[in-house]
């Protein structure tokens, strides 16, 4: 990461706010997923691709803690901010969220964590697995805005689970970026995992490559291994159960790699150190959710 | 922003009446502007929230428990949500005494809030070392000794749940500081009252009742424990009735102030704790849900008191648990405050 990016990250680490947001659009998005557009007063900075928010349901709510959610789209409309989310209703929190209607309100803590270092030179290779596509839709958008092409790899179990595929296509077409599809059952695109597909076509892509990925941790582990094996830097968006989302509860540790442990503490970046993790564990909410893959101990990541 | 004075002015023209409430609280040598503090481990070192919370309006900030050596904390998973609560198994992750002095202390002095440093140790000796190092440091208004962490294998709640050990340890710490000395107790004991009395004997200026309750959560679908260490500390609304009872029990047993903690999510919750005898309260889990929660608790509390014409928090304190001690004894002439405030039945 460049010195400037580090500085910006440091300033952004303490820029979050909690605001009341209004549901503007809420619709089905295929394979049981939902798309949610929230309108926020623009008192908090606009999130970067890869950053997340904490969504807090208004009382009475069946859950106590807010729920972390990646930002899938961001636009400024006058003095308002419109943030888009793509999510799967999997438990009581997200199922209650799924029932909200336009005009309803939620509390939003935003923006949180660190996004993808999209400024890094090289061909951006975006690798999405299932609903992990959410922050990468945003990344594709951000790259298109700065006039950069990318290679977008999208994998899922079957064609129905390639959620947001049309959205992805729209964002990629603008810059002539390419979409590479893979399904485990071969019902669409390449028959196999998205990493098998990347492995096949990587040599034909404009070098050098930089990977930005999001998906199940098992997929991200494969991304990390592939990146190390091919000398390609890889940035991965991780998940962890969270309480605060702001670095104070220490509830979201991810194990650092031995290399990251050895380097720990050498490069202060202006962020209050107590917000970040310690030598053994990084905090997913403040140092992440996007990590350089080599900084995590994948043997111990769950 | 200006600091809120001890007398919180409320002038809401649409409200039932304009008034002010004396909220000042004394904990030994420490004077708090008001009774709402942020609980240890739930508000970092204060500066993490300084951009959204006017820290000067809070009664005080209690920092994350610091130990002599830095602690990496427990492996994941450290958090599990439960009905109306959360379990945590953080394992006292903290930067350690050295970095606390070097990096955090200078910032704490600039917070603009009363600071209480939470100290943790596996032995009385370790606590004494921390107190020798920090006892006279400017910028710290008091110390809360964490005798009640449920998530460490050594020096946790169980080790400290022995009245004589508490008393001796506090007798050892007392001469090492002139600042407020507060003992934070575990609820998972036979008698909180006995522990509170031991702390009073040992020279503590106050006790905090209570830390989290030991709890457990299993994931039946994946046939595993949700937390790394099997058990964790339960906090949030789920524990409020339990904590309220422990707080009342402690307050009835000792003459020193008791600071209530456990499931406080609103001004009304805080008033309940103060009503059963707490001198002050701590807001924990609420800060994760609403970072400005502690301030909101304070505002709601004041609004409630103003609405009922209660001008001094001391008048409300203990109203729901009269005890044979002058400050809180029922006033025979007018009945207790609780009686006066009670709506009349038809
Ligand atoms: C940084 C980040 C970004 C995320 N982005 C998205 C997204 O864009 N779209 C999407 O569909 N989901 C996303 N998730 C996952 C989402 O937060 C969980 O699905 C959600 O918290 C589940 O809550 P629940 O009440 O419905 O489920 P429950 O099972 O009832 O939740 C119980 C507890 O487990 C936690 N939990 C359960 N699953 C997860 C998980 N995968 N990650 C973290 N905590 C979990 C909950 O927060 C809660 O505390 C993201 C998670 C993180 C950490
Ligand atoms: C994530 C988490 C971390 C905590 N860390 C500490 C700690 O380091 N020291 C301590 O004395 N109490 C700690 N506590 C306990 C709280 O200070 C508080 O006493 C308890 O959570 C009950 O209050 P609540 O229900 O308002 O949260 C912690 C609680 C939580 C939820
Ligand atoms: S969720 Fe609280 S520290 Fe990361």
UniProtKB/TrEMBL annotation, chain A:
Q: Kindly list the cofactors needed.
A: FAD; [2Fe-2S] cluster
For this chain's UniProt record, which GO biological process terms are given? Answer: pyrimidine nucleotide biosynthetic process
Binding of [2Fe-2S] cluster occurs at: 244, 249, 252, 285
Bound how, and how many: what does the cofactor note say? Binds 1 FAD per subunit. Binds 1 [2Fe-2S] cluster per subunit.
Query: In which domain of life is the source organism classified?
Result: Bacteria
Residues in FAD-binding FR-type domain copies: 16-118
- Which SUPFAM superfamilies has this protein been placed in? Ferredoxin reductase-like, C-terminal NADP-linked domain, Riboflavin synthase domain-like
Alphabetized InterPro entries for the sequence:
Cyt_c3_hydrogenase_gsu, Dihydroorotate_DH_ele_sf, FAD-bd_FR_type, FNR_nucleotide-bd, OxRdtase_FAD/NAD-bd, PyrK_electron_transfer, Riboflavin_synthase-like_b-brl
Alphabetically sorted, this entry's keywords are: 2Fe-2S, Electron transport, FAD, Flavoprotein, Iron, Iron-sulfur, Metal-binding, Transport
Its Gene Ontology molecular function terms? 2 iron, 2 sulfur cluster binding; flavin adenine dinucleotide binding; metal ion binding; oxidoreductase activity
Q: Which residues bind FAD?
A: 67-70, 93-94
Q: Which family does it belong to?
A: Belongs to the PyrK family.
Return the protein name: Dihydroorotate dehydrogenase electron transfer subunit
What species is given as this protein's source?
Eiseniibacteriota bacterium
UniProtKB/TrEMBL annotation, chain B:
| Species annotation | Eiseniibacteriota bacterium
Q: Which residues form the active site?
A: 149 (nucleophile)
What PANTHER family does the annotation carry?
DIHYDROOROTATE DEHYDROGENASE (FUMARATE), DIHYDROOROTATE DEHYDROGENASE (QUINONE), MITOCHONDRIAL-RELATED
Which sites bind substrate? Answer: 64, 88-92, 146, 211-212
What is the name of this protein? Dihydroorotate dehydrogenase
Positions binding FMN in this chain are: 40, 64-65, 146, 184, 210, 236, 262-263, 284-285
Give the subcellular location.
Answer: Cytoplasm
* Chain ranges of the Dihydroorotate dehydrogenase catalytic domain: 24-302
What is the name of the gene encoding this protein? pyrD
Lineage, opening ranks: Bacteria, Candidatus Eiseniibacteriota
Q: Which Pfam families match?
A: DHO_dh (PF01180)
Superkingdom, according to UniProt?
Bacteria
